Amino acid sequence: MELFLSASDPRPMYQQIVDQVTAKVMAGDWAPGQALPSIRELAAASHVSVITVRRAYEELERAGVIATRQGKGSVVAERADLPTVLMHDELQRQLEALLAIAARLGLSRADLHRFLDVAADAADARPNTPKGTTP
User: Which residues form the HTH gntR-type domain (predicted)?
Assistant: First the structure.
């Protein structure tokens, strides 16, 4: 399990762990049921405290990304739809951030639709973007 934690990142270390594990599950890099290192192993490998990793694992478990079994350790939650659910959650967070920025700019719903159409058209025009994949 390779995680890259940075002291210069403004996010707390536990949040960096949560974000990176979630990203790996979303991308399908880590399959349902895949074992995670123990809290102690990850703490030693990442040069952070056991408390930091424990907090990250607790957050991941609350979010449904991992499951922990007493005496067995932690595994990626065994849900085939987990990557899709996580991507929908991330899309919702991004949309909420977009709406907050649009409100600060005073943009109307029609303005937002135009921005979205322009962005989708630009994405469709890129050579490596499959057509019709933009939401």
Answer: 11-79
Query: Which residues is 67 bridged to in the sheet?
Result: 75
Does residue 92 contact residue 49 with C-beta atoms inside 8 Å? no
The C-alpha angle 91, 101, 20, rounded to 5 degrees, equals: 40
pLDDT tens, position by position, 24-40: 998 888 889 999 999 99
Question: How far apart, in whole angstroms, are the C-alpha atoms of residue 95 and residue 108?
Answer: 15
Angle at the Cα of 131 from the Cα atoms of 128 and 133, rounded to 5 degrees: 95
Report the candidate in 135, 34, 28, 29 with the shortest Cα–Cα distance to residue 83.
28
Tokens at 70, concatenated:
């007493």
Confidence grade of residue 12 (pLDDT, cut at 50, 70, 90) = very high
The pTM assigned to this predicted structure is: 0.69
